[in-house]
Amino acid sequence: MFICKRARRLKINSGAVDRGKKDLQRSPLFAMMGPMARYALIALDLDDTVFRSDLSISQRTRAAVRRLMQAGVAVAIATGRMPDGLLDADKRLGLNKTQGFLICGNGAVILDSVAKTIVYEATLPQKAALAAFDLIDAEGFAAQIYDGNRIFVSRRNEFSNADHRLTGMKQTVPKDFRAMLVEKGAHKIVVPADPVLLKHLEEILRNVMDVAVTLFTSKPYFLEILPPACDKGTALAKVAGRIGVKQDEVAAFGDSMNDESMIRWAGCGVAMRNGDERVKRAARFVTEKSNDDDGLAEFIERHILGDEPLPRKDP
């Protein structure tokens, strides 16, 4: 599993947040900053939200996120990627120098964005992990888990190779995947496969497994199995509680089914124009533009940092 320094306690609390706001208001720069943001905590998905299709982050998006942090907003990356697969998104957005959070593995790991210490993590119970893998393997599918900068996959296919291309993480096929799963454990298991076939497998897992797990698709060709009650929404609630932010002071942006839980939980849940139709139906708002056309940055500029009314969702 991901190896990182462990924190006794992240040094952020509601008192510190209140003192920070007061210090900011006394600063001579305060008058130059313009209106404060509407929300105290913003969670941002990466793929197809912050990232454009080519995995780049536009200058406009970088500037919008930096303005949020300058306005005193806590920013959390919330992604299905593991910490070693972020493609330096935290650095590109400035979160490596400004206190925030990295919600990784769809909520299985939460890190302090500056110190990179783990402040929360959850792993699949061994019984659940083995039961899931045995079913996956019996149905002829591949399974993969993550350890540091490596992806361990039970068998290669075109979809497992896609994860390597997306994250830059090294891919390894162990001699005995099941034994390795027992030895290392896992924050999550991912099944890379044809989207049509994954729907059938998901039904089997939901109906046959007698142990509790969390199931959803992060991309159409990735089915994810996580610990019980483990998702981005639950993780975002933990972050909000940790820094003393109320639910209605939180905004979350995403595009896929692994974002649904945080979009539903946040006071302001925003789906990307390019997002899954099910997520758009669940969201309170939808961006006017896609991830390739600065939809995230525009929404932040106009409706979070700016004073334009929040837009109505299309019927």
CATH architecture type of the largest domain = 3-Layer(aba) Sandwich
Shape from CA axes? globular
Number of structural units classed as domains:
2
Alpha-carbon distance between the two ends: 44 Å
Work out the helix count.
12
Quote the average pLDDT.
88
Structural class per helix/strand content?
Answer: alpha/beta
Q: Major sheet, described briefly?
A: 8 strands, mixed
CATH topology of the largest domain: Rossmann fold
User: What is the CATH C-level name of the largest domain?
Assistant: Alpha Beta
Strand content: 15-25%
Low-confidence segments: 1-35
Number of strands: 14
Task: Give, in order, the helices and strands.
Answer: HEHHEHEEEHEEHEHEHEEHEHEHEH
- Computed CA radius of gyration, to the nearest angstrom: 19 Å
Could you characterize the architecture of this molecule?
The chain has helices at 14-26, 46-50, 59-70, 89-93, 126-138, 158-167, 177-184, 195-208, 232-243, 260-265, 277-282, 295-304; strands spanning 41-44, 74-78, 101-104, 109-112, 118-121, 144-147, 150-153, 170-172, 189-192, 214-219, 222-226, 250-254, 268-271, 285-286. The protein is an alpha/beta fold and 315 residues long. It folds into 2 domains: 14-122 and 231-304, HAD superfamily/HAD-like (Rossmann fold); 126-226, Hypothetical Protein, Haloacid Dehalogenase-like Hydrolase, Chain: A, domain 2 (2-Layer Sandwich). Helix 6 (158-167) links the parallel strand 7 and strand 8 (170-172). Helix 3 (59-70) runs parallel beside helix 12.
